[in-house]
Specification:
The chain has 194 residues and is mostly helical. It has ten helices and two strands. A hairpin with a 2-residue loop joins strand 1 and strand 2.
Length: 194
């Protein structure tokens, strides 16, 4: 059974779509978007540091978001939201606009599907994830890839597969960081002519 707090966490995760949508329509220039997100990233990092060091900030943060925090986020580590911001900045800086946008969509929707389905139906474990979550996240990412017309289909599908492989692998980085960077790197590689 998935808790209401987990659904709220995943709903917030879906709001990460505001980053690729903002990059596509509101702040379409690469370096302007990167600077904007970097500023927000520094703010998120500051709050993360303060919530671990200043009791008043910790209490306020716990009252608002405490029920949604993972255990590692309570133990002195950054929240998933901070990783989203830094992952987004680096993704936008490193990759072409078309690749960055779809990689960030994979992170938002693919990771959400993998998490929800994996927690609800996951019975076949691989590392600390489940095959059921992996397949659900992959299906969502493949649907996105097939409908994303800004890249050749072989590029977007390779990114979809890479996104969910990155989500599955027990690499000690937050999914919100490793998914867009891993899938973006693979897509850029497949865009390079041989």
């Amino acid at each position: 059974m998935i808790s209401l707090n987990e659904y709220l966490r995943k709903l917030i995760h879906i709001f990460n779509l505001s980053i690729p949508i903002g990059y596509m329509y509101i702040i379409p220039e690469k370096w302007m978007m990167a600077r904007f997100l970097f500023g927000i990233s520094i703010l998120f990092l500051f709050v993360d540091i303060m919530r671990h060091r200043v009791p008043m900030v910790k209490n306020l943060f716990e009252n608002i978001f405490g029920s949604m925090l993972r255990s590692h986020e309570r133990d002195g580590k950054l929240t998933g939201a901070t990783w989203v911001m830094f992952g987004s900045v680096i993704t936008i800086i490193l990759f072409s606009k078309q690749v960055a946008i779809i990689a960030l969509i994979f992170m938002s929707l693919g990771d959400t599907a993998a998490g929800l389905i994996g927690q609800r139906f996951g019975k076949h474990k691989i590392w600390d994830k489940s095959w059921e979550g992996f397949i659900a996240g992959l299906a969502v990412c493949i649907i996105i890839a097939l409908n994303y017309k800004l890249l050749p289909i072989h590029v977007s599908v390779s990114g979809a597969i890479a996104a969910m492989v990155m989500e599955l692998l027990p690499i000690p980085l937050d999914d919100n960081f490793k998914i867009p960077l891993g899938s973006g790197a693979i897509m850029m590689m497949f865009m390079t002519p041989i």
